[in-house]
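Entry 14. Structure prediction run on the chain below.
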Amino acid sequence: MKETVTLKFKRLFEDIGDQALFAASFFRNIFRSGFEWNELVRQCYLIGLKSLNIVLITGFVLGFVLTLQSQPTLKQFGAENYVPNMVSISVIREIGPVIISLICAGKIASGIGAELGSMKVTEQIAAMDVSGANPIQYLVVTRIIACTFMVPLLVLFADAIAFFGGYIGTNISGNMSGKLYFTKSFSSLIFSDFFPALVKTFLFGFTIGFIGCYKGFNANKGTESVGIAANSAVVIASVWIIVIDALAVQLTSIFVYNQ
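Output returned:
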């Protein structure tokens, strides 16, 4: 039993060390000559535009359901008119960035892990290395950068459509004009609501891309390892998103909202 626990801790620290080396290799290759701009654009298209449909649907449902769930409670206190304010703050600060990032982790991290894992198993990455190409720069750097910048854009689109979903939900059992609804929604928002949430989404995007690439790039031989890489990429990226969000909420509460 003691040996098993010791072995698990040893593997954990080895994994942390490997991730640190992988991150160092990523940062080194960002500024090397011969950057693959065409591949970066292609990854932005695949990661961003190809994920837009599910993100928009999720954003609409978030705003719609949050409104329907909040109306009865606020109505009991005579505060039904504050539904747009509550929905907008909740979506912008917390619900939008976290839920959309988790959706992206499920779709993007698994896709990257499976794709790179398959290339590793079929020795395509080794062939690139032997032929003189730079697989880290071509496969890893482009995907991580694309994730880092596309996830925040997806969150912004989802937040916007969530406002529309909230408007539809408000008018199912009520009657509020679009001008009044959106005026109430935006009047309750301040810069300190947007900026911390935007910073979080960049960290979420980097985490999704990094974990997906790391798991795929380090897949073992055998077709079974491809599925393991995809599954573990989703799980670990999701856990890190929750951890980063918890830390960001604490830091935001200390340095922004308590001022």
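The mean pLDDT is 90.
Filed with the rest of this week's runs.
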